[in-house]
Amino acid sequence: MKKIFIDGSAGTTGLRIKERLSLRDDIELIILPEDLRKDAKARKEALCSSDISFLCLPDSASVEAVSFADGCDTVIIDTSTAHRTSEGWIYGFPELVGNEKIKNSKRIANPGCHASGFAALVKPLTQCGVISRSARLSCFSVTGYSGGGKGMISEYESAERSPLLKSPRQYALTQSHKHLREMKAVCSLDEAPVFCPIVADFYSGMEVTVPLFAKDIGVSPDKIREIYREFYRGKRAVYVSEESGENGFLSASALSGRDDMELRVDGNDDRIILTARFDNLGKGASGSAIQNMNIVLGVDEFTGLSLREE
Fold it and tell me: Could you tell me the residue range of the domain that residue 163 belongs to?
């Protein structure tokens, strides 16, 4: 039986991973007593005695935890921003990098939620040359408030909350969002996109959209769908939707509670919108982390995950 440690199990992502893994009988969770949860010596011992450790910590604490594991044989899956573009780390998006690279790595950086949607839409197009490295892209993304962690969840669910929380709120106004670096690097872009994230009054779900002018890329919406279908062929957790939408609307919470991602290509022959819908806590966080763990363990990669019925 494999031993799993979650360093930072009190945060939103850590709690979700712990809840999911507690239901499995093929692993043993290493759980520190509450009074030792932040003790450096106890954390180091737990990290080094585990087969796989999840880091669900702020960036600086994740860097510290990785140093604790120096010389140990444990596989680390880091859900923070700290190592997503670091040398020696594999970007933990199996559908983009391939399962073998993840299976053979000791250091796996779990993708950011917004970045997951952007990369799923853009990477196949830069890889085949439809979008050039020099392209200047824009992206907007609507997310549920759980993406802001325990503090934002508490704020939105407070009985005395501000009335401003009733409407969507744009943030990261200085264009310095922490996901920009990986969005640029993973998609092999020379410039980071203009990125407009928006948090709204629903618990979980995410809708990431990249608009394009057809004349800038020289292909039709149908061609992009074809590229996506080929790129993601046989990859259950990312699929191309053939549906027309919800009476002309697309709900950002449509895949809440699931661990897969829907890609869409809409618009017309002049203006195209690419959209990725998924759960920010699922394929955007704990779901992808567990998928990576399953790949490392050599079990079915979707064990314990919730995907659409095929």
Answer: 113-280
